[in-house]
Amino acid sequence: MIAAAIDIGITGAVAFVDSRGTCAVHDLPTLPDGKDGRRRLDGRGLGELLRNHIPAGEVCVIAFEDVRPRPNPNRGTSIVTEGALMRSRGVVEGVLDCLRLTSRVRVVQPQTWKRHFGLLKAEKDASRTKALQLYPSAAHALQRKKDHNRAESLLIAHHALTVEMA
User: Fold this and answer.
1) pTM, two decimal places
2) What is the CATH superfamily name and number for domain 2-165?
3) Average pLDDT of 32-39?
4) More exposed terminus of the chain, fewer Cβ within 10 Å: N or C?
Protein backbone atom coordinates (compact mmCIF):
# COMPACT_ATOMS: atom_id res chain seq x y z
CA MET A 1 0.00 0.00 0.00
CA ILE A 2 1.16 3.52 -0.83
CA ALA A 3 0.19 6.64 1.10
CA ALA A 4 0.62 10.01 -0.57
CA ALA A 5 0.25 13.27 1.28
CA ILE A 6 0.12 16.82 0.06
CA ASP A 7 1.10 19.76 2.24
CA ILE A 8 -0.90 22.33 0.30
CA GLY A 9 0.60 25.69 -0.59
CA ILE A 10 2.95 27.38 -3.02
CA THR A 11 5.90 26.23 -0.90
CA GLY A 12 4.20 22.93 -0.10
CA ALA A 13 5.32 19.40 -0.80
CA VAL A 14 4.05 15.96 -1.73
CA ALA A 15 5.36 12.79 -0.10
CA PHE A 16 4.93 9.12 -0.82
CA VAL A 17 5.49 6.34 1.72
CA ASP A 18 4.74 2.65 1.54
CA SER A 19 4.27 -0.21 3.95
CA ARG A 20 7.91 -1.30 3.41
CA GLY A 21 9.17 2.00 4.85
CA THR A 22 10.42 3.55 1.63
CA CYS A 23 9.64 7.17 0.86
CA ALA A 24 9.96 9.93 -1.69
CA VAL A 25 9.33 13.63 -1.20
CA HIS A 26 9.07 16.49 -3.71
CA ASP A 27 8.27 20.17 -3.62
CA LEU A 28 4.92 20.90 -5.22
CA PRO A 29 5.43 21.98 -8.84
CA THR A 30 4.62 25.62 -9.54
CA LEU A 31 4.28 27.94 -12.50
CA PRO A 32 4.60 31.72 -12.88
CA ASP A 33 1.27 33.47 -12.32
CA GLY A 34 1.48 36.68 -14.32
CA LYS A 35 3.99 39.51 -14.32
CA ASP A 36 4.19 40.23 -10.59
CA GLY A 37 6.51 37.32 -9.79
CA ARG A 38 3.89 35.30 -7.95
CA ARG A 39 3.57 31.59 -8.54
CA ARG A 40 0.69 29.14 -8.65
CA LEU A 41 0.40 25.38 -8.34
CA ASP A 42 1.04 23.41 -11.53
CA GLY A 43 -1.82 20.91 -11.74
CA ARG A 44 -0.33 19.01 -14.65
CA GLY A 45 2.99 18.68 -12.84
CA LEU A 46 1.24 17.45 -9.70
CA GLY A 47 -0.70 14.89 -11.73
CA GLU A 48 2.53 13.60 -13.27
CA LEU A 49 4.14 13.27 -9.83
CA LEU A 50 1.15 11.32 -8.53
CA ARG A 51 1.09 8.99 -11.55
CA ASN A 52 4.86 8.43 -11.38
CA HIS A 53 4.63 7.31 -7.75
CA ILE A 54 1.22 5.62 -7.73
CA PRO A 55 0.97 3.15 -10.61
CA ALA A 56 -2.50 2.47 -11.98
CA GLY A 57 -4.17 -0.26 -9.96
CA GLU A 58 -1.92 0.21 -6.91
CA VAL A 59 -3.74 0.36 -3.58
CA CYS A 60 -3.25 3.83 -2.18
CA VAL A 61 -4.58 6.49 0.13
CA ILE A 62 -4.05 10.20 -0.45
CA ALA A 63 -4.21 12.69 2.38
CA PHE A 64 -4.00 16.44 2.64
CA GLU A 65 -4.55 18.95 5.40
CA ASP A 66 -7.93 20.58 5.74
CA VAL A 67 -6.70 24.08 4.97
CA ARG A 68 -9.18 26.90 5.51
CA PRO A 69 -8.91 30.65 5.11
CA ARG A 70 -7.96 32.24 8.43
CA PRO A 71 -6.39 35.66 7.81
CA ASN A 72 -4.42 36.61 10.90
CA PRO A 73 -2.16 39.69 10.89
CA ASN A 74 -0.51 38.44 14.11
CA ARG A 75 0.59 35.29 12.26
CA GLY A 76 1.75 37.23 9.22
CA THR A 77 -1.01 35.96 6.94
CA SER A 78 -3.19 38.14 4.75
CA ILE A 79 -6.34 37.62 2.73
CA VAL A 80 -4.13 37.35 -0.39
CA THR A 81 -2.04 34.60 1.19
CA GLU A 82 -5.11 32.74 2.37
CA GLY A 83 -6.72 33.14 -1.06
CA ALA A 84 -3.65 31.58 -2.71
CA LEU A 85 -3.86 28.70 -0.24
CA MET A 86 -7.50 28.02 -1.15
CA ARG A 87 -6.68 28.31 -4.86
CA SER A 88 -3.97 25.66 -4.33
CA ARG A 89 -6.45 23.39 -2.56
CA GLY A 90 -8.78 23.71 -5.54
CA VAL A 91 -5.98 22.69 -7.91
CA VAL A 92 -5.19 19.64 -5.74
CA GLU A 93 -8.85 18.60 -5.62
CA GLY A 94 -9.18 19.07 -9.40
CA VAL A 95 -6.11 16.95 -10.12
CA LEU A 96 -7.36 14.18 -7.84
CA ASP A 97 -10.74 14.32 -9.62
CA CYS A 98 -9.09 14.08 -13.05
CA LEU A 99 -6.98 11.12 -11.96
CA ARG A 100 -10.07 9.46 -10.44
CA LEU A 101 -8.42 9.22 -7.05
CA THR A 102 -11.09 11.01 -5.02
CA SER A 103 -12.47 7.81 -3.47
CA ARG A 104 -9.07 7.31 -1.85
CA VAL A 105 -8.71 10.83 -0.42
CA ARG A 106 -8.60 11.57 3.29
CA VAL A 107 -8.75 15.16 4.46
CA VAL A 108 -7.05 15.42 7.84
CA GLN A 109 -7.18 18.20 10.41
CA PRO A 110 -3.72 19.57 11.29
CA GLN A 111 -4.45 18.94 14.97
CA THR A 112 -5.17 15.26 14.26
CA TRP A 113 -1.89 14.31 12.62
CA LYS A 114 0.16 16.62 14.86
CA ARG A 115 -1.38 15.08 17.99
CA HIS A 116 -0.53 11.62 16.62
CA PHE A 117 3.16 12.61 16.57
CA GLY A 118 3.14 14.75 19.74
CA LEU A 119 3.69 17.95 17.74
CA LEU A 120 0.60 19.99 18.66
CA LYS A 121 2.41 22.97 20.19
CA ALA A 122 5.82 22.26 18.66
CA GLU A 123 7.91 24.52 16.46
CA LYS A 124 7.97 23.74 12.73
CA ASP A 125 11.48 22.30 12.95
CA ALA A 126 10.17 19.58 15.27
CA SER A 127 8.33 18.13 12.27
CA ARG A 128 11.61 17.86 10.41
CA THR A 129 13.23 16.07 13.35
CA LYS A 130 10.34 13.59 13.66
CA ALA A 131 10.29 12.89 9.91
CA LEU A 132 14.03 12.17 9.99
CA GLN A 133 13.51 9.71 12.85
CA LEU A 134 10.88 7.83 10.85
CA TYR A 135 12.54 8.14 7.43
CA PRO A 136 16.32 8.55 7.76
CA SER A 137 16.61 7.89 4.02
CA ALA A 138 14.93 11.28 3.45
CA ALA A 139 17.81 13.17 5.08
CA HIS A 140 18.92 14.60 1.72
CA ALA A 141 15.47 16.19 1.24
CA LEU A 142 15.19 17.52 4.81
CA GLN A 143 18.58 19.17 5.31
CA ARG A 144 17.42 22.78 5.66
CA LYS A 145 15.13 24.41 8.23
CA LYS A 146 12.91 25.57 5.37
CA ASP A 147 12.26 21.92 4.45
CA HIS A 148 9.59 21.72 7.16
CA ASN A 149 6.87 21.53 4.47
CA ARG A 150 8.53 18.43 3.04
CA ALA A 151 8.73 16.97 6.55
CA GLU A 152 5.07 17.71 7.21
CA SER A 153 4.03 15.99 3.99
CA LEU A 154 6.02 12.91 5.06
CA LEU A 155 4.36 12.92 8.48
CA ILE A 156 0.88 13.32 6.99
CA ALA A 157 1.60 10.39 4.64
CA HIS A 158 2.90 8.28 7.52
CA HIS A 159 -0.20 9.14 9.56
CA ALA A 160 -2.48 8.19 6.65
CA LEU A 161 -0.65 4.89 6.16
CA THR A 162 -0.87 4.12 9.89
CA VAL A 163 -4.59 4.90 10.05
CA GLU A 164 -5.42 2.95 6.88
CA MET A 165 -3.50 -0.13 7.99
CA ALA A 166 -4.97 -0.15 11.51
Assistant:
1) 0.90
2) Ribonuclease H-like superfamily/Ribonuclease H (3.30.420.10)
3) 83
4) C
